[in-house]
Predict the structure of Coenzyme A biosynthesis bifunctional protein CoaBC.
Amino acid sequence: MPGPGSQQAVPPQPEGRPRVVLGVSGGIAAYKACELLRRFTESGHDVTVVPTAAALEFVGAPTWAALSGKPVSAEVWSDVHAVPHVQIGQQADLVVVAPATADLLAKAAHGLADDLLTNTLLTARCPVVLAPAMHTEMWEHPATRANVATLRSRGVVVVEPAEGRLTGADTGKGRLPEPGELFELARDVLVRGGSPGDDLRGRHVVVSAGGTREYLDPVRFLGNRSSGRQGYALASTAAARGAEVTLVAANVSLPDPAGVKVVRVATTAELRDAVLAATPSADAVVMAAAPADFRPVSVSTAKIKKADDGTAPAIDLVQNPDVLAEVAADRARPGSVVVGFAAETGDDAGTVLEHARAKLARKGCDLLVVNDVSGGAVFGSPDNEAVILSAEGEPVVVPRGTKAALAHAVWDRVGLLLEDPDRG
């Protein structure tokens, strides 16, 4: 069985399969990269794993070879005639390093190349994504922060670490984001052909996501089918583009996006309070949540029982506040951009777009992202398609693709409005 110093030839690649280099540096989070590798291979990517020698102390070469279907080495001296230290980087469509330790970040920032992975980073001319994982003190050290700033200035995507349990009993910022989140980000970078950019750096954006619940009693509630996936995609992509992000999440079971402040709420009233509390410093507010339009006049303190005669109880409803219209009408920060979402279906009174244009005018927001949800489309799906309406200009049609792709299309439009000197 091949060992750590075995062959690392670069075999001919199947046509049409994106070539991904998965670098793994020496941190305890290396085990998570196994799941990331599985997601890449099962989605049709051709993956070459390049671990550091330290990474092989956590996960051995046989594991990487079995999961990728390729031999694995950390050495530049293996199969020298194939010049792997040059070819692997040259032939890659994407390089992802997860986890990226403080040592790896320092070497990458200063152009050091003492093993196969750092040589690959120097020769790669494709997009590069680094996912740091380390103790909080190491992440916050001025040297690491300077190295991250240098890498980002060169167009490298450095993912903000997540907060949570670290090695041992420690808790804080420095945790490797979940493999599913890293995979979606990497796929997004690959599809877009490069870094998402940092056009939102220095901006604070507020995003709402999910569906609110209006309780009838301690057990039952009025709600909707919103999964929160689009709002979470908006939060993740904004963070990738450099923004400070506050995510107001209503009843969402998704993992927290890395580098995002998450405020959890349940009801429409709670969502309203959280959004209004965050808007005074916000450059943009994107209301992707689905607030309930109505709530019960009163909430029973005990579970409502069935009647013996089979009659259903009458429930009196009152209309909830319109959070989007309120935020749009009373801009806490002059010049801020407000974006709404509309889940519409056509009917005898008008088409989806006709209803949406009326809503755009009624809400007073700058942009309205319109989903045709006829037949339950969009809800819970990993993909989305929409039309972005504005008060001025032609509609922007976003064809079916990932929810991250739609999120980027929204931020592209928001960025243009934020840079418009005639606004504000």
